[in-house]
Amino acid sequence: MSTSPAITKATIERRAFVADLLKACPQALVITGLGSPTYDVFAAGDSANHFYLWGAMGGTTAMGLGLALAQPERPVLIVTGDGEQLMGMGSLATAAAQQPQNLSIVVLDNGHFGETGMQRSHTSLGTRLADVAKACGVSHAQEVFSENELPALAQRINARSGMLLAQVHIRQDEIPRVLPSRDGVYLKNRFREALGFPC
Amino acid sequence: MNTSTTPVIPWQETIFTTLKQGGIQQVAYVPDAGHAHVIRRVQADPDMRDIVLTTEEEGVALAAGAWLGGQRAALLMQSSGVGNCVNMFSLLRSCRFPFLTLVTMRGEYAEFNNWQCPMGQATQGALELMGITVLRASTPEEVEDLVGAAVDAAFEGGQQVAVLLSQRLIGRKKWIRQ
Q1: Size of interface A-B (CB pairs under 8 A)
Q2: Residues in chain B within 8 Å Cβ distance of A61
Q3: Cβ-contact A91, A58 below 8 angstroms
Q4: Beta strands A112-113 and A119-120, pairing class
Q5: Which of A30, A65, A87, A101 to mutate to test the interface with B (most CBs of B within 10 A)?
């Protein structure tokens, strides 16, 4: 099978896009999918409002839902990859059923499993993630092809005006890894502490 | 209004009140008849949120996210769902997230459907292999104390706890609709 046209024509550079997005969403509570999205978010600058996953593949959307329901006044932003989102595809239906106004999922889609040798993922082979999200009832699902679309995307995330999924078509660059802490207890405790909860 | 003709079973009401008093605000589930009353009560409570899942492992991740945001969650599932959760349980131990699940058992007592037996009989072992403490309620009298103890162990003690609601407690499944 041939790789889909959206993958081959992608121009967005992942690190710059993520850094600009986080800068534009300073109030966001952020959960990252394992692998490159975790490195991208950490590379943009560490924060107690970031929760970096190093495992739990397929769990970001459900985890983000639990956080979004508990913290309705804050935008909750998931930054993940196509492989991680594909593994938790059912959780799009679970989250959409709750209609969380403040939950946004940014899928950095290069159509490949980057951490394991760039094998093609389903988004290279015909699955259209933004359409899947729409069909699950996600109130705003879109594809992003250009950095120019970032300000409007950030505005939607900050507005907390309905669940959002943005499928961001990124280049297939392999960028050096930048590794945040793998101490899950530390990451959890500092996240809760920043929100004013005891550890 | 609850228009169902199903009689309220006292130990199921006890589970709801124990969760409510324990400050649980998010209740995630893949449904089972043994949890049906608790689910209905949660749906009718303005301070609690019922979250239906497509697969049980979502509930593990959801509970972790709820705790990050300052809320307590519980996962209701059938024993078959425990198998669906196994890798996601890693999240709980890696980060020491509090965790409470109530598991209705199949495959262990008067089981008609042998397809339920492999996972039902492996449920306790699978939970324990992943570091989750297992409590078991076999009689109605035990339910309140055990569920209360599990709530405390999870959210005061930071433990990961499963309460198995035995098939004998739930009763024989009726296979012919009246």
Answers
A1: 120
A2: 58, 61
A3: yes
A4: antiparallel
A5: A65
CB spacing of A184 vs B53 below 8 angstroms: no
CA distance A198 to chain B (A): 9
B64 Cβ under 8 Å from any chain A Cβ: yes
> For residue B61, which residues of chain A lie inside 8 Å, CB to CB?
56, 59-63, 66, 91
Residues of A in contact with B54 (CB under 8 A): 90-91, 93-94
Among the partner residues B87, B90, B95, nearest to A185 by beta-carbon distance: B95
Residues 6+ apart with CB under 8 A from B96: A184, A185, A188, B158
Give the separation between CA A140 and CA A75, rounded to whole angstroms. Answer: 15
Indicate the angle between helix axes B57-68 and A184-194, nearest 10 degrees.
50
Query: Is B122's Cβ below 8 Å from some Cβ in A?
Result: no
- Each residue's pLDDT, cut to its tens digit, for chain B (178 residues) gives 445 556 778 999 999 999 999 999 999 999 999 999 999 999 999 999 999 999 999 999 999 999 999 999 999 999 999 999 999 999 999 999 999 999 999 999 888 899 999 999 999 999 999 999 999 999 999 999 999 999 999 999 999 999 999 999 998 777 777 6
A81 closest CA partner among A102, A110, A56, A53? A110
CA A112 to each of CA A119, A124, A127, B40: distance values in angstroms, whole numbers, following the listed order: 5, 7, 12, 42
What is the three-class DSSP state of A78?
strand
Does A69 contact B71 at a Cβ distance shorter than 8 Å?
A: yes
Are A62 and B62 within 8 A, CB to CB? yes
Ordered DSSP codes for B55-113: STHHHHHHHHHHHHTT-EEEEEEEHHHHHHTTTTHHHHHHHT--EEEEEE--SSSS-S-
Which DSSP letter does residue B136 get? E
ipTM reported for the complex, 2 dp: 0.96
Is the pTM higher than 0.90? The answer reads yes
Phi-psi region of A57 (alpha: psi -120 to 50; beta: other; left: phi over 0): beta
Residues of A whose CB is below 8 A from B52: 94, 97
Looking at residue A74, the DSSP 8-state letter turns out to be: S
Q: Please spell the DSSP secondary structure of A117-143, one letter per residue.
A: T-EE-GGGTT--HHHHHHHHT-SEEEE
